[in-house]
Design goal:
Blueprint lengths: L1 E6 L4 E11 L2 E11 L1 H5 L6 H23 L8 E7 L3 H18 L3 E5 H7 L11 E6 L4 E8 L2 E7 L5 H11 L6 H9 L24 H14 L5 H26 L4 E5 L6 H13 L3 E3 L10 H13 L17
Parallel strand pairs: 1-4, 4-5, 6-9, 9-10
Antiparallel strand pairs: 1-2, 2-3, 6-7, 7-8
Length: 333
């Protein structure tokens, strides 16, 4: 089965072709992602209206490139999987309407996919994961812990109460004048700094030990910059901030792994590309006899291969969505 995946939940226009033999056995024939970093850099964050317009311009070219790289044509596609939420509703609608039109035109079934399920299953594009496993989803829009009890059965154990971790990276990068997107820049800059130079606060949510909170660390950096006057090297500040965020991500994750007795932790989402987070979580997991699994960098950020994979399980069961399905900005998992 050849599945065309389409993803447009935020500011990445993505298309992919996935060849699926049976549940859990899939090969990525192509994966194309067109980011909009230059469009949004001026504003220090994603502007929803601009994102939607860029998706309109880029969605069909992305699909055409994905088909060409996969060595196939529209007539070879057996089904379509498309993100229907959560995300920016304008962005979601572009991908969803495109998928509906293609499904009707070439006469193939279509399923709408939850973006978060795509991230949770992204490591399975390259790895075999034992079930149950723990998934830490960390991105610009989401930070949450899920217990994966089975494909399609996800129990949320913890979530951010305010900013997502990736959002905190972007906002701190903007405060430091580093540009957008901030996560990559801070990661690179932090490698030249001392993570112990500044003692920044590590937030814990009272009576909810598996939840996260990142608004405080952002405020702490803003106040520090206001009082510091440039005395602290940018590398030291970046390293200290990054270390605090990593600490706040590790503590609930390891507590959940112990509480639910899972041996495998999946790290996924855009912030999963952060080198310090990967290294420290891998080390901490090994110390407790657990295993960390993370996707390749190209599958950490929003991509359509993970959407096709998530949709493949439903499609192989014979499930279909009608052309009446709508985008849902706050689609629950």
């Amino acid at each position: 089965m050849l599945i065309l995946g389409i993803e447009s939940s935020c500011d990445d226009t993505a298309a992919a072709v996935l060849e699926v033999v049976e549940p859990g056995r899939a090969t990525v024939r192509s994966s194309v992602v067109a980011n909009q970093d230059k469009v949004h850099a001026t504003y220090g964050g994603v502007v929803p209206e601009l994102a939607s317009r860029e998706h309109i311009l880029g969605i069909l070219p992305a699909i055409e490139i994905a088909l060409r790289e996969a060595g196939c044509e529209f007539g070879d596609i057996d089904s379509i999987a498309v993100t229907r939420g959560p995300g920016l509703v304008g962005s979601l609608l572009v991908g969803l309407m495109c998928a509906k039109g293609l499904a009707q035109r070439i006469g193939v079934p279509m399923v709408g996919v939850n973006h978060l399920e795509g991230h949770i299953l992204a490591p399975m594009l390259e790895h075999t994961l034992p079930i149950p496993f723990l998934a830490l989803v960390v991105s610009g829009g989401h930070t949450a812990l899920y217990l994966v009890e089975d494909i399609g059965r996800y129990r949320r154990l913890g979530r951010t109460r305010d900013d997502a971790a990736g959002e905190a990276f972007d906002k701190v990068a903007k405060l430091m004048g580093l540009g957008y997107p901030g996560g990559r820049v801070i990661d690179q800059l932090a490698q030249r700094g001392d993570p112990k130079k500044l003692r920044l606060p590590r937030a814990r949510v009272k009576h909810a030990p598996l939840d996260f909170s990142f608004s405080g660390i952002k405020t702490a950096v803003a106040l520090y910059l206001q009082d510091d006057g440039g005395a602290t090297a940018a590398g030291d500040l970046a390293a200290s901030f990054q270390e605090a965020v990593v600490d706040m991500l590790l503590r609930p994750t390891l507590e959940a792994a112990r509480e639910f007795d899972v041996d495998t932790i999946a790290l996924t989402g855009g912030v999963a590309a952060n080198s310090r987070l990967r290294a420290r979580l891998d080390e901490a997991a090994r110390e407790e006899g657990r295993k960390l699994v993370a996707p390749a960098f190209k599958y950490c950020t929003d991509n359509a291969a993970m959407i096709a994979l998530a949709g493949s399980y439903r499609l192989l069961r014979g499930e279909r969505d009608s052309l009446a399905i709508d985008a849902e900005a706050n689609l629950p998992l």
